[in-house]
Amino acid sequence: MPTSVPCPNCGKAVPWAPESRWRPFCSERCRLIDLGDWFDEAHRIAGEPGLDSDVDPAVDANLDADTAANEEERSPFFH
């Protein structure tokens, strides 16, 4: 008999086996609810937030230039 774990969202027992497609969740619905909680920042990883000073200014400037160029290409206001 495979080990079972509780679904992190609803608590339903989920067999820990390859046929449990959404493990550790019991269903795609529970998986998507949990993902939404991460996006809404209901779940967070403990610790200090990263500092912008950790990023190399040259790399950061290149990323900003690339982002701006891509936005100009997609924006209807620049055509």
UniProtKB/TrEMBL annotation:
Belongs to the DNA gyrase inhibitor YacG family. Its cofactor is Zn(2+). It comes from Thiorhodovibrio winogradskyi. The keyword Endoplasmic reticulum does not apply. SUPFAM superfamilies: Glucocorticoid receptor-like (DNA-binding domain) (SSF57716). The keyword Amino-acid biosynthesis does not apply. It holds the Pfam family YacG. Inhibits all the catalytic activities of DNA gyrase by preventing its interaction with DNA. Acts by binding directly to the C-terminal domain of GyrB, which probably disrupts DNA binding by the gyrase. This is DNA gyrase inhibitor YacG. Residues 49-79 are annotated as: Disordered. Binds 1 zinc ion. Keywords: Metal-binding, Zinc. Interacts with GyrB. Zn(2+) binds at residues 7, 10, 26, 30. It comes from the Bacteria. InterPro entries: DNA_gyrase_inhibitor_YacG, Znf_NHR/GATA.
